[in-house]
Design goal:
It is a single chain. The chain is elongated and about 100 Å long. By secondary structure, the protein is mainly alpha-helical. The longest helix is centred in the last third of the chain and has 43 residues. It has two domains: 111 residues, no CATH class; 72 residues. 72% of the residues lie in helices and 0% in strands.
């Protein structure tokens, strides 16, 4: 059983680019002045028939998508875990991550609570012996909050830099094999699908406009009825009567 051709949505941008390049080519531009359609109409028709046109290069497209799947599988196998590269895992990485999140939160809560109690007591009387240590402890917790937040951000940036430089592929479409398969598909799409479609459209529109004029004269409305008499026949009959 033949499987129907499926054109993925993420590849339609490449299709539109090939279509625009084909319409802008010297061959198509040279044939447009004598055609009954313009470049915009050609583009609309080609976009509407994108699936059927792309199916002309179905074999090359399947090779391209297969190469992309293989590259994505390889990329997934090369992802470095958060705890570090294989053989260099840090067993306490999870604990450090939890502390990096909890310490700023807890110290912030403590700072707000101590400062509120300390400054709140000053409103109800002279409690310097109590409010002084509370306010001092509150500001100390605030300082810890800032330091812990800064350390967490630095650790996050360091981890992101390690993963960026760990050799992770930039994506399936950037692998050499996939890039070659993509260029082969784009060339086949242009030569086997887009250009033949544009030529057929221009040829049919040109032929249709020429034959349409003849059909309009030969099959003018009412000319096929038995009672129709052309002006030339009326003139000839009047001359015989004279």
């Amino acid at each position: 059983m033949i499987r129907p051709f499926r054109f993925q949505e993420e590849d339609r941008a490449d299709y539109r680019r090939v279509l625009d390049e084909a319409i802008s080519s010297e061959e198509i531009q040279a044939r447009l002045p004598g055609a009954a359609v313009n470049a915009g109409q050609l583009r609309v028709r080609a976009l509407a028939a994108s699936t059927s046109i792309a199916s002309s290069a179905a074999h090359e497209y399947q090779e391209y998508t297969a190469a992309g799947r293989q590259a994505r599988t390889t990329s997934a196998g090369n992802v470095v875990p958060l705890s570090g590269p294989p053989g260099q895992e840090q067993p306490n990485a999870g604990v450090l991550a939890v502390l990096a999140v909890l310490v700023p939160i807890l110290s912030l809560i403590a700072a707000v609570t101590l400062l509120l109690i300390g400054y709140g007591l000053t409103l109800f009387g002279d409690h310097a012996a109590v409010t002084g240590p509370l306010v001092t402890a509150g500001w100390a917790c605030g300082t810890v909050t800032l330091l812990a937040t800064g350390a967490a951000l630095v650790a996050l940036l360091h981890t992101a830099r390690q993963h960026r430089s760990s050799g992770i592929p930039r994506g399936a479409k950037h692998s050499p094999k996939t890039a070659v398969a993509r260029e082969i598909w784009l060339a086949a799409l242009r030569d086997q699908g887009v250009m033949p479609f544009l030529r057929r459209q221009l040829s049919s529109e040109t032929g249709g406009s020429e034959s349409g004029g003849e059909l309009e004269v030969l099959h003018r409305p009412g000319s096929s009825s038995p009672s129709f008499t052309s002006p030339a026949m009326v003139t000839a009959g009047s001359r015989r009567d004279q």
